[in-house]
Amino acid sequence: MSDSDDEYDPAEIAVPAPAPTPAVEAAAEKAGPLCRADLFSISASHAAESTLASGLSPAASRNAAAQDAHRDESIDDNYRLLSGIKGRIRCLALNPAGTTLCAGSEDGQLCMWDFNVPLKSHRVAPTRVLTPFVNRISGLQPIIALTFAKDGSFFVACQDGDSPALVRASGEQLGYCAMGERGLLDVVQCRGHRAPVTCAAAHHRDAAVFLTGGQDGTVRLWNHNTFTHRSVYAIKHGSGQLTDTHVVESVTTLQHFRSGQADIFASGGQDGCVQLWDSRVKYRPGGALATVDMFAAASNGNKRVEADVFAEKHVGGLLEMQAASPSSPAASPPDHSLAVRVGSVIKTIDLRKLSSSLGASASAVVQEVASGLPFALDTTCLVLGGRDLSSMLTCTSRAGYQNVTGGHVVQYTYRGGVPPCDRTMIWRAGKPEEDVLCVCADRSRPDGCVYGGLSSGEVVVRNAFTTGKDPQPIEAWLQTRPKREWRDRAPGEKARRADDDAQLLAGLF
Fold first, then answer.
1. Does Repeat appear among the keywords (predicted)?
2. Phi, psi of 288, rounded to the nearest 5 degrees
């Protein structure tokens, strides 16, 4: 990173492209045209020869060959998964083991990459493509939210409709959540959502429980065993009055609030407020444990900054954060906060102060920790970027970051104190015309991959290839790609006849 805080040079964080190799130069002099497949073979063979000559291990040689073989599918030296999706990728989810990646798009496709299933052809394609939400009138419905259960046994997919679907990790669809009743009925007493679902979250402790929020202003808890009948618990965000309905835009559970002794979850609504709820307490209107207005007027020294009453109030991603562990065992307990993405900034709510005084004002518990993050959607995600709760990832639109165009993924480490967050990674994941709309990370290993969903319908992967003995799951998966037999034929030798048309077509890709 450069010394200036206003601009950075992407060349400083990207691996420079290698110089043309003798094998490639020799191939360029051939009489026939050089196709992309030839580049794969030449670059891979040259990488293997150079690494063996330098004394590297066979595992390191395979890694280097894989990196060179896929270099032309990357930007800033990152691998791209071609999904075949026509619309924007709105959500990503990775199972806890880091072996199954799911992507939901606006064209209604749900792509699954199972890195434990070997590739059947040379073409890298999703392991499964599901279309769980089909409407007779409008066709496939956009998939706008995905979340994996704590144990990775199933995941929840939410459409632009009122009924989420549960899908096993193997791709089998389990069913739809209960539909909400229509008519004059208390929205909290309905079986399911009465309006489109907007967000979903897995429970931090119970793998069978998950939460959803919707445009009907409710947050609902569901159980894996009864989700087709009704939700097990529901609250209405805001005041709870019949005429006061605010869209719920984000929801999350709090694992360490009050030492984890209560089942607390947080909801963020289009009223600009974040509310905390206890699922063990029977719901009553206005019965939130605490309400924090993220757009409340703030004070700046002796001057008072007035809030804009005409501004749209969207509350994006919610993420529970815990400051990095202190170096001294005798140090005070680490700070505990709730990070909130609000437009182009990230703010934190001090949960320690809020726990001791539930009626604390917003100015006493809210602090801005990051800014300058352009956004393409009203709500932008915040996800954990490591094994602990101190690392978070977020993304930007094609407007870029610090005067560098193209969608970015930015990582922060929460340490508390002043400043509370340190920027630890800047990754230009998209081209100048691409937005990064969602992001997820492999938390099962210290050097886990980071995945970004692009407006072009592709998934870009950072750190897909390693130089160590333990390959990334996606790297090991790519190494299972079968070799094209026609490349080993001698000049003039006829190709072996395919057994059927399907095998012949598979060999073409």
1. yes
2. -65, 145
**55 part of a folded domain:** no
Which SS3 state, helix, strand or coil, does residue 196 take?
A: coil
Beta bridge partners of 273: 293
Count the Cβ atoms, other than its own, within 10 Å of residue 489: 11
The DSSP code sequence of 291-345 is EEETT--EEETTEEE---TTS------EEEEEPPPPSSTTSPPPPEEEEEEETTE
CA distance 153 to 468: 29
Cis status, amide bond into 118, omega within 30 of 0:
no
CA R_g for the chain: 25
| CATH code for the domain of 388 | 2.130.10.10
What is the extent of the structural domain holding 122?
70-298+312-464
Q: Return the number of other C-beta atoms located less than 10 Å from residue 214's C-beta.
A: 28
Q: What gap in Å lies between CA 218 and CA 251, rounded to an integer?
A: 10
Q: What would the pLDDT profile of 381-433 be if each residue is shown by its tens digit?
A: 999 998 888 999 999 999 999 999 999 999 999 988 788 899 999 999 999 99
DSSP 177: P
How many distinct structural domains can be found in the chain?
1
User: Does residue 5 sit within a domain?
Assistant: no
Q: Is 267 exposed, middle or buried (0-12, 13-18, 19+ CB in 10 A)?
A: buried
pTM comes to 0.79
